[in-house]
């Protein structure tokens, strides 16, 4: 082999190595991108495969009268009112939360209702499961909210 042949061979070898490394980088990036896209699609399918069927009458609640409690929120010694809280893209979209009518409990007397300053009216909380739709609106994510469901009397805190 001549000296010029060796130089040409080394130049060709270097070009081949440079091109091979570029080709290898392109292949690796393509594979990683393909795996990332496939993983995202599979992961999304796995999260959304479960089906939750909501009955058409889900939002209808039995009347308080039929449940036997009647207007318990106004008859309570710690009365409350109901406040609707609506959030779009949530199931259920509207949750009714109790708001205590007074800081203190009310005690009936012979002539009128007396306020009991020794006991406070405090909300009772319940964890409620809700579903929030994802950005794609194809899936729902489960969340738990702390919701006031009524009020009760409790001894006033002393410091």
Automatic annotation (TrEMBL):
Family note: Belongs to the IL-17 family.
Pfam families: IL17 (PF06083)
UniProtKB keywords: Secreted, Signal
Family matches, as InterPro entries: Cystine-knot_cytokine, IL-17_fam
Molecular functions (GO terms): cytokine activity
Localization in the cell: Secreted
Protein name per its UniProtKB record: Uncharacterized protein
Gene: LOC110504334
One CC-aspect GO term: extracellular region
């Amino acid at each position: 082999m001549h000296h010029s042949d060796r130089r040409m061979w080394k130049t060709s070898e270097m070009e081949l190595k440079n091109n091979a490394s570029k080709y290898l980088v392109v292949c690796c990036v393509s594979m990683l991108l393909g795996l990332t896209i496939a993983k995202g699609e599979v992961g999304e399918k796995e999260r959304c495969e479960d089906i939750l069927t909501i009955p058409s009458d889900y939002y209808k609640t039995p009347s308080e009268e039929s449940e036997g409690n009647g207007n318990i929120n106004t008859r309570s010694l710690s009365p409350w009112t109901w406040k609707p809280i609506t959030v779009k893209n949530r199931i259920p979209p509207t949750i009714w939360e109790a708001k205590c009518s007074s800081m203190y409990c009310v005690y009936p007397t012979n002539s009128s209702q007396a306020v009991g300053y020794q006991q406070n009216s405090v909300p009772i909380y319940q964890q409620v499961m809700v579903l929030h739709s994802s950005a794609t609106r194809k899936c729902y994510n489960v969340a738990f909210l702390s919701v006031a469901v009524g009020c009760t009397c409790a001894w006033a805190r002393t410091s």
